[in-house]
């Protein structure tokens, strides 16, 4: 199954994509993770992307499209993949249609006020991609999965979060219509009071996983 995870920052794309990756044995491909790694390694791509990312703006299309096109050629993508955070513009979606056959675009929706709370308390593992919220960490500072020290992403600061939500509304939300018109869209209304597991079940149901 070739999947796209759509939805605003903080809706749970990464969390559910990771679970699905483990369950279906197909890779989660996160352009955000790839870009953060490039910034950390100080590559040309990382240097070009850094300022956009820190401001909560989108990195130019031509920088991200190539990352995904290359990644999808790898052997582990033959049985399927989950694109997490790509495409984010109509131009990216059009480019994607030239090198990938998408089965489902899954749109995770969540109210802005919940997103702001989630992102401002988010802690992440830059090594394995694990994501946590301070309210559930009980003071713990390392990743339960790999032991790496957790960090707060620079773009999870309050001003940047607001900009990311604006960027999402203007540049990425049009993809909901785009994939609806192609007959590929499924939407999951994530419930803020529900557990991750309960919301994940909704994701599975929407994808028709028994
Ligand atoms: P994420 O981890 O998906 O929230 O992405 C973090 C940041 O990386 C975004 O705010 C953008 O600056 C950049 N980014 C990730 N994916 C894309 C994309 N598909 N197009 C443009 N910029 C992206």
What can you tell me about this protein's structure?
The chain has helices spanning 13-24, 31-41, 44-55, 61-71, 90-97, 112-120, 134-137, 158-172, 174-181, 196-207, and strands at residues 2-6, 28-30, 81-84, 104-109, 122-124, 131-133, 185-189. It has 210 residues and is α/β, with parallel strands linked by helices. It has a domain at 2-26 and 79-111 and 161-207: P-loop containing nucleotide triphosphate hydrolases (Rossmann fold, 3-Layer(aba) Sandwich). The strands form two sheets. A five-stranded parallel sheet has the order 2-3-1-4-7, sandwiched between helices. Strand 5 and strand 6 (131-133) form a beta hairpin. It starts with a strand and ends with a helix. The structure holds adenosine monophosphate (AMP). Adenosine monophosphate binds at residues 9, 31-32, 35, 52-53, 56-59, 64, 85-88, 92, 155, 164.
């Amino acid at each position: 199954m070739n999947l796209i995870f759509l939805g605003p920052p903080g809706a749970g794309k990464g969390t559910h994509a990771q679970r699905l990756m483990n369950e279906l044995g197909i890779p989660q491909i996160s352009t955000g993770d790839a870009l953060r790694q490039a910034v950390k390694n100080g590559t040309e791509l990382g240097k070009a992307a850094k300022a956009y990312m820190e401001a909560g703006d989108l990195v130019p299309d031509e920088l991200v499209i190539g990352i995904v096109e290359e990644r999808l050629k790898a052997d582990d993508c033959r049985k399927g993949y989950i694109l997490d955070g790509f495409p984010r513009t109509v131009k990216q979606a059009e480019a994607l249609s030239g090198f990938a056959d998408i089965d489902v675009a899954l749109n995770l929706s969540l109210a802005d006020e919940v997103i702001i709370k989630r992102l401002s308390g988010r802690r992440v593992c830059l090594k394995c991609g694990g994501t946590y919220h301070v309210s559930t960490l009980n003071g713990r500072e390392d990743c339960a999965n790999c032991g790496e020290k957790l960090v707060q992403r620079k773009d999870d600061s309050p001003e940047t979060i607001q900009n990311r939500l604006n960027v999402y509304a203007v540049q990425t939300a049009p993809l909901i219509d785009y994939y609806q018109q192609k007959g590929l869209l499924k939407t999951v209304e994530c419930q803020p009071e529900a557990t991750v597991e309960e919301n994940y079940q909704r994701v599975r149901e929407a994808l028709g996983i028994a």
